[in-house]
Amino acid sequence: AQSVTQPDIHITVSEGASLELRCNYSYGATPYLFWYVQSPGQGLQLLLKYFSGDTLVQGIKGFEAEFKRSQSSFNLRKPSVHWSDAAEYFCAVGSGGYQKVTFGTGTKLQVIP
Amino acid sequence: NAGVTQTPKFQVLKTGQSMTLQCAQDMNHNSMYWYRQDPGMGLRLIYYSASEGTTDKGEVPNGYNVSRLNKREFSLRLESAAPSQTSVYFCATGEDYQETQYFGPGTRLLVL
């Protein structure tokens, strides 16, 4: 069975600092990988996704993620964080069918001035 | 384009009461999903519908029923609400085969 681990429950960064959110997955074949963002009181919004091809994926709002098969990781990065990036971030893994997406437990990002 | 809409936004129930959460989409997607979100547990799939006329259980289906009324609408019913069903419920739609999902704004349910 597929699974996702987000080891950091809560991360605090200063505005303007770089950010890396960790995601490790478990899946037997090439996974479909996603990062979603949830602002307070809102639904989830897709930031970026990886299906195949270039392992460095660019997303919206200046985010990127890198798929590393050898480490079973799909970490999310941003070079310079803005106060508006404060939200909860979810990594997810899919199996290629349209009903099997597993979400991680989320990382809550706090941005301080 | 409204995307995915959910009603109601917030509901308080007493134990044993029933209610139906409504979800509608105008994205012309075949797949629709119901999740619940609880602190520290991420999103857990309750039921999904791969296409109109089909529904299947997800990870946590007990205490819930669903209806895929047509391509646009997918409802979630609690027949006899329990405090353990206090949660935030999200409906989502999916692009076939690519599993990108689009979420509604959620329904906050409190069962007393």
Account of the protein in words:
The complex is a heterodimer of chains A (113) and B (112). Chain A has 113 residues and is mainly beta. Chain A has no helices and 12 strands. In chain A, a hairpin with a 4-residue loop joins strand 8 and strand 9. Chain B has 112 residues and is mainly β. Chain B is built from no helices and 11 strands. Chain B is globular, with a radius of gyration of 13 Å. The chains are: A mainly beta (113), B mainly beta (112).
In angstroms, what separates the terminal alpha carbons of chain B?
A: 36 Å
Task: Work out the strand percent of chain A.
Answer: over 45%
Tell me about the largest β-sheet of chain B: 7 strands, mixed
Largest interface, chains and sizes: A-B, 24 and 29 residues
Q: Tell me which oligomeric state these chains represent.
A: heterodimer
Shape of chain A: globular
Shape descriptor of chain B: globular
Number of helices of chain A: 0
Order of helices and strands of chain A: EEEEEEEEEEEE
Give the total of beta strands of chain A: 12
Structural class of chain A: mainly beta
Q: How far do the termini of chain A sit from each other?
A: 41 Å
Mean pLDDT of chain A: 92
Pattern of helices and strands of chain B: EEEEEEEEEEE
User: Over the alpha carbons, how many angstroms does the gyration radius of chain B reach?
Assistant: 13 Å
Write the layout of secondary structure elements.
The complex is a heterodimer of chains A (113) and B (112).
Chain A (H helix, E strand, L loop, with lengths): L2 E3 L4 E5 L4 E3 L2 E3 L5 E7 L5 E7 L5 E3 L5 E5 L4 E6 L8 E8 L6 E3 L3 E6 L1
Parallel strand pairs in A: 2-12
Antiparallel strand pairs in A: 1-4, 3-9, 5-6, 5-10, 7-8, 8-9, 10-11, 10-12
Chain B lengths: L3 E4 L2 E4 L5 E7 L5 E8 L3 E8 L6 E2 L6 E5 L5 E5 L8 E8 L6 E3 L3 E5 L1
What would a concise description of this structure say?
The complex is a heterodimer of chains A (113) and B (112). Chain A is globular.
Features:
heterodimer, A: 113 residues, mainly beta, six-stranded mixed beta sheet, four-stranded antiparallel beta sheet, 0% helix, B: 112 residues, seven-stranded mixed beta sheet, 11 strands, 53% strand
